[in-house]
Specification:
By secondary structure, this protein is mainly beta. The chain has a single domain, classed as Glucose Permease (Domain IIA). It is built from two helices and twelve strands. Strands 2, 3, 4, 5, 6, 7, 8, 9 and 12 form a nine-stranded antiparallel β-sheet that branches. Strands 1-11-10 form a three-stranded antiparallel β-sheet, with no helix packed on it. The two termini are 27 Å apart. Bound molecules: zinc ion (ZN). Zinc ion (ZN) binds next to loops.
Length: 185
């Protein structure tokens, strides 16, 4: 059974997972899309650690202005764990791991990125994006959990599933981090 040993952002202001209906919660309803994971808001450049040991399956570009103008370039790492489950660490500014590499729990895999280019968000942007501009939260770690390797989907883009289609192996990451959360923060 897959179990995290480390909070992925050791320097985060708090150790809380957003709960529905808060921004960044799992399966958040974003009108034309649903949020595939949870967002852990943190300062840009903060180190990101592997919460659990795993094998690096994939390193890929996750967002960029060629896809959506208000996106900065960020990176995604897929880690496969001993029980076959997979975690996605995304919206990172950079990554320091490569496919095929084994990482230990607590090993640094990258830095928190600033996914949103605030100067390019306007009234034509999706409402949930406009709200993130208002609250001043352009940087975060986007985290997803799958019970097995995720399949490529044409409905998936930048951490959201469009058309409301939820893959059978997509899991809510909230209970995964439950024991490491700090309820006082
Ligand atoms: Zn997200």
């Amino acid at each position: 059974m897959s179990k995290p040993e480390f909070w992925p952002i050791p320097n985060a202001q708090n150790r809380r997972i957003p709960r529905s209906p808060a921004a960044g919660s799992f399966w958040e309803d974003r009108r034309d899309r649903r949020h595939a994971g949870v967002d852990l808001y943190a300062g840009q450049g903060e180190p990101v650690l592997a919460a659990e040991a795993g094998l690096v399956l994939e390193v890929s570009r996750f967002t960029g202005p060629d896809l959506i103008p208000y996106w900065n370039v960020t990176w995604s790492v897929l880690l496969e764990h001993a029980d076959g489950s997979v975690s996605r660490y995304a919206e990172m500014a950079d990554t320091c791991v490569t496919p095929g590499q084994r990482v230990q729990a607590g090993q640094q895999i990258g830095h928190v990125g600033e996914v949103l280019n605030l100067s390019l968000i306007d009234s034509s942007s999706p409402l949930y994006i406009q709200r993130l501009k208002t609250t001043g939260c352009p940087a975060m770690l986007h985290f997803e959990r799958y019970s097995s390797r995720p399949c490529p989907s044409r409905h998936y883009l930048g951490g959201n599933f469009f058309a409301g289609e939820r893959p059978a192996n997509l899991q809510d990451p909230t209970p995964y981090f439950g024991a490491l959360e700090d309820p006082e923060a």
